[in-house]
Amino acid sequence: MASLVMPAPTPSSSSSLSSLSSSSSAASPAPLFPGSSCSLGRRSVSQPFHSLNVKCEIAEPMNGKPCVPIINDQILPKFLQSRRLESAVKKSETKLKIFSGTANTVLSQEIAWYMGLNLGKINIKRFADGEIYVQLQESVRGCDVFLVQSTCPPANENLMELLVMIDACRRASAKNITAVIPYFGYARADRKTHGRESIGAKLVANLITEAGADRVLACDLHSGQSMGYFDIPVDHVYCQVGAEVSSNVYADVMCHAYAAFVFCPQPVILDYLASKKISTSDLVVVSPDVGGVARARAFAKKLSDAPLAIVDKRRHGHNVAEVMNLIGDVKGKVAVMVDDMIDTAGTIAKGAALLHEEGAREVYACSTHAVFSPPAVERLSSGLFQEVIVTNTIPAMEKNYFPQLTVLSVANLLGETIWRVYDDCSVSSIFL
């Protein structure tokens, strides 16, 4: 499915958010794969898999400065015409409820809009001493509740808020509680690299479990073993690597509607990068460190089995990296660097500098989580990168905008995953 690329900011952007959850008119579907220009209508809860509205149309992805999009029934940007319900789901027909924390309210609104639902009413506030207060303002008894909250900076505040939200839902007799965590903080503390260190990822997993969550839905975890830290089911949503079918086959099947099941959203970064139409003979996928080789290899496989290069580095401290060597050939090629997150951008910036020294024609940076701790923006906007492609698992702040930045929305992907969890359908089939 076509990724959402947020447009240039407008003064009316923030005021238009209020109309987001109440909007109920049908929108035409967005392309699922840019190369195929195919789209697929989102089914309703009671609609069978084989009675889907399939339509083909040509749409080009947009690139520009990210901001909060304008969403209402009169002014609907073309790239926001996603696979929305033809009519909003009636509240009496579903026991699914979505609540948003304060970490990423825009993404939560987009997810609810995609699903044809309104966000649940919730009151979240801070007391004068900093304590967090949460009150659900509608009944969730016997409901499947999905709490959307990234544990992004300020990580401790947002994590505590999530825990209190889970506790409020548990005490309100929710049937199932799913913590939707687009960005899972503390994921890098997944093992002991030195003596007397804590394993923060396991600790946070225990806190979420003990608070009362029945399931966790997370995007592009830093390492796969983090799923094993939870004693509850974890649905791992991959925002970078897509399905195991070629775009030509995908387009043919979708446009003729031969399939009797739901075709799922293509992971957004791969989908957007495929729209660049870079020649496979000119493309090389680069892992910025040895630890990301598996991720880069999977990404390269989806891009017509592109060649792989690896940046060898030595890390002397936290957030400090030194590039040592390049394994692979990048001379005269378009290099695509793939990582799960960009924090201070030290690793990826030094890697890009090395790629240019080795003769790379252009360098693209692709990352799911844009943490952007200082001095990340300065490094990323220094001219090393043709484009920096991230997603909105962490909200993009205006101070972090720069000309090369492209922000893609994971709302459709998360919305589809939530539907599948609620309908007891396969989630892994999205990525197979």
TrEMBL record:
Residues 1-20 are annotated as: Disordered. The keyword ATP-binding applies. It catalyses: D-ribose 5-phosphate + ATP = 5-phospho-alpha-D-ribose 1-diphosphate + AMP + H(+). One of its GO terms (biological process) is 5-phosphoribose 1-diphosphate biosynthetic process. SUPFAM superfamilies: PRTase-like. GO terms for cellular component: cytoplasm; ribose phosphate diphosphokinase complex. Residues 11-20 have a biased composition (Low complexity). This is ribose-phosphate diphosphokinase. The lineage of its organism: Eukaryota, Viridiplantae, Streptophyta, Embryophyta, Tracheophyta.
